[in-house]
Here is the input.
Amino acid sequence: MSDLKFCQGPDCHTYSTQDRLKGPKGNKTYQTRRRSHMYYGRGNFCDQRCLYDWVAQYIEQGLDRFGRTTQAKHLTEQNAWIKDYDWRGNADESHRHFFVNKITKEQRPLTEAQYNDSNYTINTGE
Here is the structure.
């Protein structure tokens, strides 16, 4: 069985839903959701409302702590390479994997293993 974890939404316990209402008759309270699997915010929030509550409360602190973008970022021909593939519908055909340059539209073939390797890249710029 998976470990249960609490939703990280700061106001999760304030929302009136049946699954948040806990306790014996006459002494019920709304509580933060506790689940084995959360679907939002990389598995930290029970729903989008809780995710957005957290963002509204902590976004400024996060940007101050981890850094704000202070200059424009540029996509150039050198750093515009992304991995992509053509989806093939027939069972006898495999997907065609490739790098594609988002600016020049040039394509370079990849193996499926290279496509699945998150460290494999041909980007040469920032």
User: Anything to note?
Assistant: The mean pLDDT is 90. The CA atoms of residues 38 and 67 lie 27 Å apart. Helices lie at 48-66, 112-116.
